[in-house]
Amino acid sequence: MAWFKRQEKGIITPTEQKKETPDGLWYKCPECKTVVTMAEHRRLSYVCGNCGHHDRIDAGTYFELLFDDGQFEELDAAMTSADPLVFTDTKAYPQRVQSTEKNTGLKDAVRTAHGQSAGQPLVVAAMDFRFIGGSMGSVVGEKIARAIDYARQNRVPFLMISRSGGARMMEAGYSLMQMAKTSAKLALLAEAGIPYVSLLTDPTTGGVTASFAMLGDFNIAEPGALIGFAGPRVIKETIGKDLPKGFQSAEFVLEHGFLDFIVDRRELKQRLANLLGMVKK
Ligand SMILES: [Zn+2]
């Protein structure tokens, strides 16, 4: 088997001549392990074409998916957090905000914008999990409150896309006040007769679930999203019982009457347009 023998020893390809597969060219579904090109994954709105797994996407990607030709105007883009409690855990809070800003290019855990979606005006507030777990601090609350004000003043429907671990511990009580503030603004929106659709994505938990995320005229969710207030471990320890299968999944929550419907992200824009078209005055 002389032909099978490596004649030269060692790997001698110089580093600069090695062919590498560029990162970010392929996507592998974490559920069913199907591999597709990133271009195909993007074309499918970041949903697995095989099993329907919804990949987590950021606020900017939702804007691109929803607004016509990706055109929108962002509201309060420069608002950043103060440090009202002078809070320090493993780092000081302002340092944590600064390093997260640097890593993500975001100013806080929500982005708000208005534009046209399927030819109709729409205000969207989309949370971004990359910014301290999508936690709700005073900037998140204030930006959502102002987006609701904008929707009310301009008589434009409001869509909230939640993806959050809950209140931001570094702002403690200030975070909790955002629940009351956003809820009060939504009450004014309802009084003015402007439709509000709340889309719950994976995960929507804590103070976000306990306030604006569950106050929609329509509460809808992405398939498989974790939706709950406290985590399953905490609940299990509190009630001392095993939890049912699929507990806190969007499908479970729908079956128990907390959601109106579950929507595949590939159909989100069209279904939203149909829904808003129906309730238009
Ligand atoms: Zn899959």
TrEMBL record:
Record text on cofactor binding: Binds 1 zinc ion per subunit.
Zinc finger intervals, C4-type: 29-51
Annotated positions binding Zn(2+): C29, C32, C48, C51
GO molecular function annotation: acetyl-CoA carboxylase activity; ATP binding; carboxyl- or carbamoyltransferase activity; zinc ion binding
UniProt cofactor(s): Zn(2+)
Major place of residence: cytoplasm
Pfam families, per database record: Carboxyl_trans
Location of the protein in the cell: Cytoplasm
The keyword Transmembrane belongs to this UniProt entry's keyword annotation: no
Pathway of action: Lipid metabolism; malonyl-CoA biosynthesis; malonyl-CoA from acetyl-CoA: step 1/1
Keyword tags: ATP-binding, Cytoplasm, Fatty acid biosynthesis, Fatty acid metabolism, Ligase, Lipid biosynthesis, Lipid metabolism, Metal-binding, Nucleotide-binding, Transferase, Zinc, Zinc-finger
EC number: 2.1.3.15
CoA carboxyltransferase N-terminal domain location: 25-281
PROSITE patterns (alphabetical): COA_CT_NTER (PS50980)
Enzymatic reactions: N(6)-carboxybiotinyl-L-lysyl-[protein] + acetyl-CoA = N(6)-biotinyl-L-lysyl-[protein] + malonyl-CoA
An annotated GO BP: fatty acid biosynthetic process
InterPro entries attached to this UniProt entry: AcCoA_carboxyl_beta, Acetyl_CoA_COase_Trfase_b_su, ClpP/crotonase-like_dom_sf, COA_CT_N
Subunit structure: Acetyl-CoA carboxylase is a heterohexamer composed of biotin carboxyl carrier protein (AccB), biotin carboxylase (AccC) and two subunits each of ACCase subunit alpha (AccA) and ACCase subunit beta (AccD).
Functional summary from the UniProt entry: Component of the acetyl coenzyme A carboxylase (ACC) complex. Biotin carboxylase (BC) catalyzes the carboxylation of biotin on its carrier protein (BCCP) and then the CO(2) group is transferred by the transcarboxylase to acetyl-CoA to form malonyl-CoA.
Classification via NCBIfam families: accD
Recorded family membership: Belongs to the AccD/PCCB family.
Name of the protein in question: Acetyl-coenzyme A carboxylase carboxyl transferase subunit beta
High-level lineage: Bacteria, Pseudomonadati, Bacteroidota, Cytophagia, Cytophagales
